[in-house]
Design brief:
The protein is mainly α. About 60% of the residues lie in helices and about 5% in strands. The strands form two sheets. Strands 1-4 form a two-stranded antiparallel sheet. Helix 6 packs across helix 9 and helix 8 packs across helix 9. InterPro entries: EF-hand-dom_pair (IPR011992), EF_Hand_1_Ca_BS (IPR018247), EF_hand_dom (IPR002048). This is Reticulocalbin-2. Keywords: Calcium, Metal-binding, Repeat, Signal. Not known. Binds calcium.
């Protein structure tokens, strides 16, 4: 089967999106080292459209909804928001909107509206036609072969998510397919998939050399900057037991997007910018004093939460 460049390029694009990590968020938050205040707003409110809607609210309604969100973030009800409380809230926000997006996608993918998404329906939504590859036959074209590998991985993940072995995925299974890192029964699959890709010697671990992939050091030259950065990540971020290799749990912290790290970074940023009395926590008064900053952060999904009753409704 021969494919044109469009599906292959799309497959590669999807892979890039799937492995987006804290480094991508850092670049968005501080492009060329300069802080983007609108990035903060989008973390709390959702995006420019939600920001525009927020501006239309009366000042009284803005304050009312914002105070309700502050109250919910304050888990121990002591009147202050700590780094831990802000980080937990931002992580919850990430997960909530990821689940909401998956639910919306489910409706789009379920072409015959039977309450499940089949593999054929997934293909039609993604590529406008059903694609089928021979698992045992590699393609000569490098770009097409790359797409074949990605497509086969998607199919394996789809089959793993299908717990009841039905003809398609129900909503819960579709969420597991789209966000395997959020579902316990998919964790083993995520780890195994990463080992199959990176554990070249089959010992059940990923060494530094395997982590760096095809890079081969030139003894006559210094390592390029990107290799130094990757080595530092391996040694200081992932190899927790410092044994020079990544075990399955350490591997998981590498291959799954680190929302926790992003959330902690944003929580620290808010405290650094808004903590007027240097007590390393935020009062309601400090937040209202810096309302624009708070509403340009991930704590309210860039203001989106002020339009989502899930976050500001008192009874929820």
């Amino acid at each position: 089967m021969r494919l044109g460049p469009r599906p292959a390029a799309l497959g590669l694009l999807l892979l890039c999106a799937a492995v987006a990590s804290a480094g991508d968020a850092e670049e968005l938050h501080y492009p060329q080292g300069e802080h983007r205040s609108d990035y903060d707003r989008e973390a709390l409110l959702g995006g420019q459209e939600e920001v525009d809607e927020y501006v239309k609210l009366s000042p009284e309604e803005q304050h009312k909804r914002l105070k309700s969100i502050i109250k919910k973030i304050d888990l121990d009800s002591d009147g202050f928001l700590t780094e831990s409380e802000l980080s937990s809230w931002i992580q919850m926000s990430f997960k909530h909107y990821a689940m909401q997006e998956a639910k919306q996608q489910f409706v789009e993918y379920d072409k015959n509206s039977d309450g499940s998404v089949s593999w054929d329906e997934y293909n039609i939504q993604m590529y406008d036609r059903v694609i089928d590859f021979d698992e045992n036959t590699a393609l000569d074209d490098a770009e097409e072969e790359s797409f074949r590998q990605l497509h086969l991985k998607d199919k394996k993940r789809f089959e793993k998510a299908n717990q009841d072995a039905g003809p398609g995925l129900n909503l819960e299974e579709f969420i597991a397919f789209e966000h395997p890192e959020e579902v316990d029964y998919m964790m083993e699959f995520v780890i195994q998939e990463a080992l199959e890709e990176h554990d070249k010697n089959g010992d059940g671990f990923v060494s530094l050399e395997e982590f760096l992939g095809d890079y081969r050091r030139d003894p006559t030259n210094e390592d390029p900057e990107w290799i130094l950065v990757e080595k530092d990540r391996f040694l200081n971020d992932y190899d927790k037991d410092t044994d020079g290799r990544l075990d399955p749990q350490e591997l998981l912290s590498w291959v799954v997007p680190n929302n926790q790290g992003i959330a902690q970074e944003e929580a620290l940023h808010l405290i650094d910018e808004m903590d007027l009395n240097s007590d390393r926590k935020l009062s309601e008064a400090e937040i209202l004093e810096n309302q624009d900053l708070f509403l340009t952060s991930e704590a309210t999904d860039y203001g989106r939460q002020l339009h989502d009753e899930y976050f500001y409704h008192d009874e929820l």
